[in-house]
Amino acid sequence: MKELSIVIPVLNEEGNIRILMEKVRSSLNSYSYEAIWIDDGSTDSTVAEIKKYSDQHTRLLCLSRNFGQTAAMVAGIDAAQGEFIVTLDGDLQNNPEDIPAMVKKLKDGNWDVVTGYRKDRKDNLLRRIPSRLANKLIRSISGVTVRDYGCSLKVFRGGFAKNLGLYGELHRFIPILAALQGASITDTEVSHSPRIHGKSKYGLGRTFKVLSDLFLLFFFQKYFRRPIHFFGPLGMLTLFTGTAISLYLLVEKLMGHDIWGRPLLILGVSLVLAGIQFLTFGLLAELMMRIYYESSNRKIYSIKSEFVGPAHP
How confident is the model at residue 302 (pLDDT cuts 50, 70, 90)? Predict the structure, then answer.
């Protein structure tokens, strides 16, 4: 069994492959490790570069198309055989030289997850400012006090990495998902470099995706296992309010007052219908959770080919 598995998703990073491979080798030469490269549908020579500079530590998984960073990361984690799993971007902005210190901190402190904190980020303001705001918002809502959710450099104990339940674009919320599994989490400062080769895959549109996923994670934290606890009280409150309004109007009608066309009548009927819908959603969500836990685990990616680097001569 390998001590470390380094999971590196890449998409059109041909200019960074050779340098990153050299940095990984020089930083981890004292470990028993495997470097799992996941090509997420690159259209340049990224795959050829990985094969060209591969060695006995190299494993390459080529996905059949572009599935996104989360799916690529899951593919690498699923394939990992190491006791500890490290996730690392392929853009050279994070330095593999930080990995040994992170592994040591995880072992010495008996942590389950150690995530990087880019104190001195080299990105432009259009990326730093939204990132800082998002980090503060996520911390306040989730209660998981990691300083930098956007840093891809993380070290996990293998069991926790393989049970994160990643899909969609939830890789940026890994600390929250790990906390849901009961993991102990800390962070540590890591270096950060400006991107030299290739093009960033992130834009301002990512901010809205983060906010949407944050709402999802809030629901996961509080109500994932029992969604009826969210929809049930909301539905009963709405149904009770609508019923009370309707009963009031019924009394008004029996007393001879005209109630037709009154906004209060429309509100009462709407609340009754909304309450029934919320309760129905809760019941359906409970059934879906039962199916989720009892059904077979389907993958969110498909692998087209796999390549293993040459063995030691």
Answer: confident
